[in-house]
Amino acid sequence: MAIDPYTAALIFKGTQSFLGLHGKNKVAKQQLQELNQNILLAQLTAVSNTNNIMSGTTEILRNNETMASTSGYYANDSASFRAIQARVSETEARDLVNVNLQKDIAISSMNASLNNIKSQMTMDRIQLGLEIGSMYYSHTVSYTHLRAHETPE
Fold first, then answer.
1. Rounded to 5 degrees, what are φ and ψ at 71?
2. Whole-angstrom Cα distance, residue 14 to residue 4?
3. pLDDT on residue 67
4. Is the full-model pTM beyond 0.85?
5. Count of other CB atoms within 10 angstroms of residue 147
6. C-alpha 107: how far from its chain's center?
7. Are 45 and 123 in contact (CB under 8 A)?
């Protein structure tokens, strides 16, 4: 039994639509994976930057204490030492807030991209369903129309 041309066209178009969706999904899944990796990288970078800031602050404060003690006075008794210590602590706090803010902005942007890609994948699946449904409906109508015009034998 031979397949009529309309059915063959329907099968071809349906396969073509499905393969197109498959290709789009493959690319989208790679993008999702890259974004998830970038989120982890942003978190790790923030932790590393936080550790660097805190280590730098500790080193500055130790150096300040060392300089005060080599000058022959107890560092905590010096107003200038306390002022330097306060300034360094304020700078550290500001820098830590900036690191967290940068991380939060980056992750928020990547999460928005993740959601957009997932939404597009859903829309692509819906589009495939609509295309296949439309092709089926048009095939049914065309096939029925052709059969109506056949001459009885």
1. -85, -5
2. 16
3. 80
4. no
5. 8
6. 8
7. no
| Model confidence pLDDT, tens digit, residues 81-122 | 888 889 999 999 999 999 999 999 999 999 999 999 999 999
- Paired tokens of 2: 């031979």
SS (H, E, C) the chain: CCCCHHHHHHHHHHHHHHHHHHHHHHHHHHHHHHHHHHHHHHHHHHHHHHHHHHHHHHHHHHHHHHHHHHCCCCHHHCHHHHHHHHHHHHHHHHHHHHHHHHHHHHHHHHHHHHHHHHHHHHHHHHHHHHHHHHHHHHHHHHHHHHHHCCCCC
Place of tokens 């300040």: 64
The answer to whether the beta carbons of residues 61 and 85 sit under 8 Å apart is yes
Tokens of 139: 């095939």
